[in-house]
Specification:
The chain is α+β, with helices and mostly antiparallel strands. The protein has helices at about 1-10, 15-20, 35-70, 85-115, 125-155, 165-190, 195-215, 230-235, 240-245, 250-260, 305-310, 385-390; strands at about 120, 120-125, 265-270, 275-280, 280-290, 290-295, 315, 315-325, 330-335, 340, 350-355, 400-405, 410-415. It folds into two domains: about 1-215, no CATH class; about 240-380, no CATH class. The radius of gyration is 36 Å and the shape is elongated.
């Protein structure tokens, strides 16, 4: 048993390191007035000691009770409900005192643990936790101390020993009432009907400490009044900003991509990202999306050859300026069509998309919204795919094969003028 607990403590070495070297954080919680460092560095170590002490004493108590009962040290009868050896009783009583004392310490520490719990809408200490549960733990702590005193007295005064089981039953009943039943009743019948009013002070604590945790309390608000003195010189001096004011929205433009640029039924655009790229005429904000393989092929195209040899990957991408349109009202594409074409000097050397954001092999679902900067979106193949394609072409333009994701599969690339079948992958 000692070895088991030693191994448990060995795994918790970092808890001791934080306890020994941890300091104050300079921020006090509003409920108990403790520094935040206490909850980060001290409390976990105290809980480790308390839980270990409680577990060790409880296991020893149960094991000793079973052993004494097995060897006939304790005997039960009709007239005398228990007969025992006094030395064994003192042994068990000592272990019981340790268990109850560790419980009392546990109830003391459980008060601080309320800051990590949730009752109702408040995460941490709310109305019920502060006014009911916190007091309940004090009551249970006092009850544990009283029970310890009764066990200690019974070691000297034998007539108190008959009250131990009765006292234990009362202890369990008290726990059920004040710790389990009472908080739920107060929360349901008092707090819930007036939740906003009663929980407002605790919600303010939540908001204040959330702002501190994310350093939102350091934000400085500054008002910039709208001026009416804009001149052509101001526009000329800030031409790059004006040219990159976003006019297109990612939601309707996704429909435009799908209608004009999917081109094949087995390709699909799943979402639109916002990025920034250096082009020949300057720095531009753009919208772009990879032309990935559709999750499902059309029913008539679901043949073994199509699914495993031909339509195995997406192809290319679409990119457009965020602030420009054509005379037809369509986006001004920087990269479009199959194979990828660009009127702005951008070459897509590896258009095959084997691993996209929603590749059928990954089983992931498309995001509901996208609005991030993805400067690497032009490189639509993975580094491993690109390296394989660059290094393994055989003399004479023959096929190149490289290992697939499983031991029984390979990917083969075949030079072809058909973009849909370019860099085909086969499973063998």
């Amino acid at each position: 048993m000692a070895i088991v607990f030693a191994l448990t403590f060995y795994a918790e070495w970092d808890t001791f390191v934080r306890f020994y070297w941890g300091g104050a954080m300079g921020q006090v919680d509003p409920i108990y007035g403790k520094d935040v460092g206490f909850y980060l560095f001290r409390l976990p170590f105290y809980q480790l000691i308390q839980n270990s002490l409680n577990g060790l004493a409880l296991i020893n108590l149960l094991a000793a009770s079973v052993a004494y009962g097995f060897f006939g040290v304790f005997q039960a009868g009709w007239r005398s409900w228990v007969r025992h050896d006094h030395t064994a009783f003192r042994h068990l009583a000592g272990l019981l005192i340790v268990v109850l004392a560790s419980w009392a310490w546990g109830y003391f520490l459980d008060r601080y643990e309320l800051l990590y719990g949730q009752i109702g809408i408040v995460y941490g200490v709310g109305y019920t936790a502060y006014h009911i549960t916190r007091i309940s733990f004090w009551i249970m702590l006092a009850a544990s101390v009283v029970l310890v005193a009764l066990v200690a007295v019974s070691l000297v005064v034998k007539r108190f020993r008959g009250f131990l089981l009765l006292s234990a039953g009362g202890f369990l009943l008290l726990y059920a009432v004040v710790v389990i039943v009472l908080p739920g009743v107060i929360q349901k019948y008092k707090v819930a009907p007036s939740e906003l009013q009663l929980e407002t002070p605790f919600l303010k604590h939540n908001i204040a400490f959330t702002r501190k945790a994310f350093q939102l309390d350091r934000i400085q608000e500054q008002t910039y009044p709208a001026l009416q003195d804009l001149t052509l010189k101001d526009i000329a001096d800030n031409r790059e900003t004006i040219d990159n004011i976003r006019l297109w929205d990612w939601r309707p433009i996704l429909d435009t991509y799908r209608q004009t640029q999917e081109i094949r039924l087995y390709y699909q655009f799943y979402d639109v990202d916002v990025g920034r790229y250096h082009l020949a005429d300057g720095y531009h904000q753009v919208m772009l999306s990879a032309r990935e393989l559709a999750a499902q092929l059309p029913p008539k195209a679901k043949t073994w050859v199509n699914q495993y040899l031909q339509f195995t990957h997406g192809y290319g991408l679409v990119m457009n300026f965020v602030s420009k349109k054509t005379t037809e009202g369509l986006p001004d594409y920087i990269i479009e069509n199959i194979p990828p074409q660009s009127g702005y000097g951008i070459d897509v050397n590896q258009p095959a998309v084997y691993y996209g954001e929603n590749s059928p092999a990954t089983g992931s679902s498309p995001p509901t919204s996208r609005n991030s900067t993805t400067p690497g979106a032009i490189t639509t193949s993975t580094p491993a795919t690109a390296a394989a394609a660059a290094s393994c072409w055989m003399p004479g333009g023959n096929a190149c094969c490289s290992p697939g994701p499983s031991r029984m599969s390979i990917y083969c690339s075949v030079p072809t003028s058909n973009p849909a079948a370019a860099s085909r992958s086969g499973a063998a």
